[in-house]
Design goal:
It contains 3 helices and 2 strands; from the N terminus they run H-E-H-E-H. The chain has about 80 residues and is α+β, with helices and mostly antiparallel strands. The model has no long low-confidence stretch (mean pLDDT about 90).
Amino acid sequence: MSWKQALKTFCDLYSESKLTNKWIIVGSVGSVLQNAKMEPNDLDIYVQNIEDVQDIAELLGKFNLKSKSDLSYSDGDWLSSNE
């Protein structure tokens, strides 16, 4: 999944969830959104507290693998795991 697809997917899920957590996009996607010339490999989202981490993790839970991926973190098909 490209970073653009990941961002759209996250925004759609967040909007549909009716959550009210405060979050920001950081890292390379945040830089690209500010006109930096680079190609992000992932989407970094910061939240304010542990409760927000839990809410967002649940929101994205369907994308977690049950066991650790054999793919490299830099591979575009890499996914986070419960591990």
